User: Which sequence fits this backbone?
């Protein structure tokens, strides 16, 4: 069965070692929100809990930079906590958890893994994130608490 954050899930004679890293949604960059109250428009900036950015995210780099840095650091910390050793090649899969499912396309969900994979490189799980060292596995979605369950398998 599944274990706590970063635990080894499947490890038998025929299976490659597998780690599951839960990365909850993090506060994203400030977003403008306009409200109309009694005929008067008010514009505020607010931060929401968000999944990692995808390829279509048009956030300005100055606002996105600290968010991306925090995502990389979270992935690095989770990998170190899980005790993932240095590997020559890994297969990365993910389960994207969100409140509403069926709204996203597969390519955008796969692009969400970029900063998390960079965090694994920072943690020295793999030497770099080229095709030689990283294979992208299955990326699916589930209804649940917002975040990413990152699945790392020795390939």
Assistant:
């Amino acid at each position: 069965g599944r274990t706590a954050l970063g635990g080894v899930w499947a490890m038998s004679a025929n299976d490659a070692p597998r780690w599951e890293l839960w990365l909850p949604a993090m506060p994203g960059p400030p977003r403008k929100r306009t409200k109309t109250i009694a005929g008067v428009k008010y514009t505020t900036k607010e931060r929401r809990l968000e999944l990692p950015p995808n390829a279509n995210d048009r956030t300005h780099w100055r606002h996105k930079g600290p968010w991306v840095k925090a995502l990389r650091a979270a992935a690095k910390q989770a990998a170190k906590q899980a005790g993932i050793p240095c590997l020559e090649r890994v297969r990365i899969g993910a389960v994207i958890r969100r409140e509403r499912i069926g709204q996203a396309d597969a390519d955008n969900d796969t692009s969400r893994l970029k900063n998390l994979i960079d965090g694994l490189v920072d943690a020295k799980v793999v030497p770099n994130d080229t095709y030689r060292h990283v294979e992208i596995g299955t990326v699916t979605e589930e209804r649940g608490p917002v975040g990413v369950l990152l699945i790392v398998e020795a390939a």
Observations:
- The helical segments are 61-82, 106-111, 114-122.
- Strands lie at 18-24, 26-27, 31-37, 40-46, 49-50, 90-98, 134-143, 147-154.
